[in-house]
Specification:
This protein is α+β, with helices and mostly antiparallel strands. Helices cover 32% and strands 17% of the residues. Residues 129-188 bind DNA.
Length: 240
C-alpha cells in the first residue's frame, strides 16, 4: 500500500518517507505550523502539531514579563529580579527608551519598568522620592561576591576600592552588601524552619535533596501537556 502524506494527503512516491507522530510525510510537506518553514534536521511537536525550534519556544517556552510572549532560546534576554524580558521589552513604559546595562530603573508591581528620570520626575510631582535600582553586570557582581566572601562587612576603604574597581556608586556598593547580609540571614532562618519541618513530617532523612540550577529560556517549557517532543528527523526516514 502506498502511504499518503499527512500534509498534502497525496501518495508518497519519494524514495524516502518521513515518519513523524506516527504519520507519514513528504520531506517537503513537513513544515512548522506557525512560520511554514520546511523542517529538515529537527522539529518539535505538541498536541499533534509540529513546530520549528523558535516557534515552539515562542508558544511554550519562558514568557517575557513585558509582553507575555514566549522567548525563543536563540534570543538574548535581560533580567530584573526573577523576571525575564526580550531586549526590546526591557524599556521604560513612559519614554519608551530601551534600558541598557548600568541604567538605573524602577521595577513596578505589574513588572513594568520605569527609568530613573521619569520615575523621579513623577515622584517629584507627588513630593516623594525613592532610590532607584541599578543594573549590575555579571563582572561587577562577580567582583562584589568575591569581596563578600572575604568579608561580609568590609571597611570603608574596601568599599571605596570596590567602587573604583566596578564603577558603581559607593552607596550602591554599601546597599548591595547590606542586602546580601540580610538575604543570607533570612535564608539561614528559613532553611532551619524547612529542615526541621521536613524532618518531623517525613521521619529521619538520610539524604537531603537540593534544588536544581537556574534554567535558560530554551530549557523551561510551559506546562499544559505531557506530549511535548523533540524529534531528530534524521532518524525518522524510512525507505519505501
Amino acid at each position: 500500500t502506498i502511504p499518503k502524506c499527512a500534509g498534502c494527503e497525496q501518495p508518497i512516491l519519494d524514495r524516502f518517507i518521513l515518519k513523524v507522530l506516527e504519520r507519514s510525510w513528504h520531506g517537503k510537506c513537513l513544515k512548522c505550523i506557525d512560520c511554514q518553514a520546511q523542517l529538515a534536521d529537527k522539529c518539535f511537536a505538541r498536541n499533534g502539531q509540529v513546530f520549528c525550534k523558535d516557534d515552539f519556544f515562542k508558544r511554550f517556552g519562558t514568557k517575557c514579563a513585558g509582553c507575555e510572549q514566549g522567548i525563543p532560546p536563540t534570543q538574548v534576554v535581560r533580567r530584573a529580579q526573577d523576571n525575564v524580558y526580550h531586549l526590546h521589552c526591557f524599556a521604560c513604559i513612559l519614554c519608551k527608551r530601551q534600558l541598557n546595562t548600568g541604567d538605573e530603573f524602577y521595577l513596578m508591581e505589574d513588572n513594568k519598568l520605569v527609568c530613573k528620570a521619569d520615575y523621579e520626575a513623577a515622584k517629584a510631582r507627588e513630593g516623594t522620592t525613592k532610590r532607584p535600582r541599578t543594573t549590575i553586570t555579571a563582572k561587577q557582581l562577580e567582583t562584589l561576591k568575591t569581596a563578600y566572601n572575604n568579608s561580609p562587612k568590609p571597611a570603608r576603604h574596601v568599599r571605596e576600592q570596590l567602587s573604583q574597581d566596578t564603577g558603581l556608586d559607593m552607596r550602591v556598593v554599601q546597599v548591595w552588601f547590606q542586602n546580601r547580609r540580610a538575604k543570607e540571614k533570612r535564608l539561614k532562618k528559613d532553611a532551619g524552619k524547612s529542615r526541621w519541618g521536613e524532618y518531623f513530617r517525613n521521619g529521619h532523612l538520610k539524604q537531603a535533596v537540593g534544588s536544581g540550577p537556574p534554567t535558560s529560556p530554551d530549557s523551561s517549557i510551559e506546562r499544559g501537556g505531557d506530549d511535548s517532543l523533540e524529534i531528530d528527523l534524521r532518524s525518522h526516514k524510512d525507505f519505501r
